User: Fold this.
Amino acid sequence: MRLRRCILAGLWILSLITISFYGGAVSYGFFFGVSMVPVISFLYLLCVYARFKIYQETTRRSIVCGQREPYFFTLQNDDYFSYVSVSVRMHSSFSYVEDSFEDVEYELFPGDRSVFETKIVCKYRGEYEIGVKDVFITDFFRLFRLRYAVSGQIKALVAPRIVKLSELKSIADLPVLMQREAMGDSEADILVRDYVEGDSLKQIHWKATAREGQPKVRTTLGKESRGISIFCDTRRYSQEKKEYLPLENKILEAFLAVGFFFADKNRRFTAFYGQKGITRQQVEGLRSFEDFYKKVSELSFGEEEDLGQVLEGAVRLEPVGGIVFCVLHELSPVILEVTERMTAGGVIVVLYLVTQKDAAEYVRLGSSRRKIVVLSAEEGLEGRM
Assistant:
């Protein structure tokens, strides 16, 4: 396009020289002809811009992350002249189409209608625009290009996918404990709390008492223990979609993966997350997992949410024993302190940390009863959890 403009500018200068030194009807005709080329080309583009039509559609607005959905778009020419060059640009940050349309220029003859059918895949959970983003139209001399903003943008509501894990490597060395939780063993799990007058001296947890400098007693959970608790971080850590969408998608994906792992084995678990306060949901195997999935899909992330407060609040509301899973992005001092108290009371804690940072810096914070597993926002969960 730049070369053509340079050639036209050179011809226009040549026409000026011609009429300046030679004059005559031919020279002036050449000058006016060259001068009118860009004017006619631009007027042509304006006509195409005003009359051009594009339609696009998916089979449904609600899409599951990573799932292939039918998608088509139509370029249409209802005029009596041709559209010599039409090209499209897709939304590519959060979704992609299986066939490439961006490197192709289409010519639409009068009354022509071109329909393109393909599959579209959304990469992250959330609500965002997909499909054709812009249309570019070029004149027949290829001197100008106009960007046609597509008015009928498709905004997809994308739900997180469910990753079915064959095993949880993070607790592979705890089969006895998992079996006990699955069968609802009545043997008491323990979590410490402050000593209250009247508590039996047999219930005093001497290690916790020595460590904290005040009497601590064991909290008996027994048959009423929920056994498995899963916490999810719902804090938004950025204002940029390109930053927070992949992160939030992977957090919910891991949250659901752990939940489905236990639900598929008909093991009861309790889920906790922040939604302007502590939200608690008990899941009784697969029969109630669908409702759990629906609520997780609708979770909103906010800057005011704090997983540390959710952990503290959950411990105050009810005993949390057995195994505790946390899916989060950052390890705050509060989270470390609360989980340390949990492990001191005999609880197994697994922290799934979704981050791009080097995993080595978190290794020293883990222990035999507090495992830290680092996950990448862009990598799969299979074999890593």
In short: DSSP finds nine helices and 19 strands in the chain. The domain at 169-375 is CATH 3.40.50.410 (Rossmann fold).
